[in-house]
Amino acid sequence: MKDIPAEKAIHKAFEIGVIIKGIDGVLEILGSILLLWISPHRVSSIIVFLTQHELSEDPHDFLATHLLRTAQEFSSGTKLFQSLYLLTHGVIKIFLVWGLLKNKLWAYPVSIAFLIAFIGYQMYRYSHNHALSLLILTIFDAVIIGLTWHEYKLLRGSKAQE
After folding, report:
1. Other Cβ atoms within 10 Å of 148 Cβ, number
2. Residue 96 included in any domain
């Protein structure tokens, strides 16, 4: 079935999506480590520095005001939670990406379950902050779920024929 051009394209999209998830997992781990090393005051200072020019031109800039508000609400407790969240999220992603790229049958339904859980959390967060990035991430995750399910059915079918 992999000889059909459409199947090859779907498989390639799956591989690219999984690799993007793996890169995202590595970045989340690096971000969690960086977050632990930087004080909440330093985070606020960096965000103020990065947004001051934009806010001087447009005091109502959506992204700059959102970043500034987030920085002002950033505390030591928030820092620890976000760092642990990023670390856990990144480690899980890398582990599941490894399983998917190695065609481990167990990794497909487990990945789908975790992506559904992440989507649930993203929608919960979206209901509070209406961040467009969460919607984009959720759509991407939904596509990855579809591709993962498709690959899982193919892999399970090919293993049953062996």
Report:
1. 23
2. yes
| Cβ-proximal residues to 84 (8 Å cutoff; 6+ apart), any chain | 32
Long-range CB contacts for residues 115-123, cutoff 8 Å, separation at least 24: 115/141, 115/144, 115/145, 115/148, 116/145, 118/89, 119/145
Model pLDDT for residues 29-80, shown as the tens digit of each residue: 999 998 888 887 787 788 888 888 877 888 888 777 877 787 777 676 777 8
Residue 162 lies in a domain: no
What letter would DSSP give residue 50? H
Question: 147, 14 in Cβ contact below 8 A?
Answer: yes
Contacts 24+ apart (CB under 8 A), 45-50: 47/71
- List pLDDT tens digits, range 80-91: 888 898 999 999
Distance CA 2, CA 50 (A): 48
Distance CA 49, CA 24 (A): 26
Q: Which amino acid is at 104?
A: K
Global pTM value = 0.74
Indicate the number of domains in the chain: 1
Neighbour tally for 5: CB within 10 Å: 7
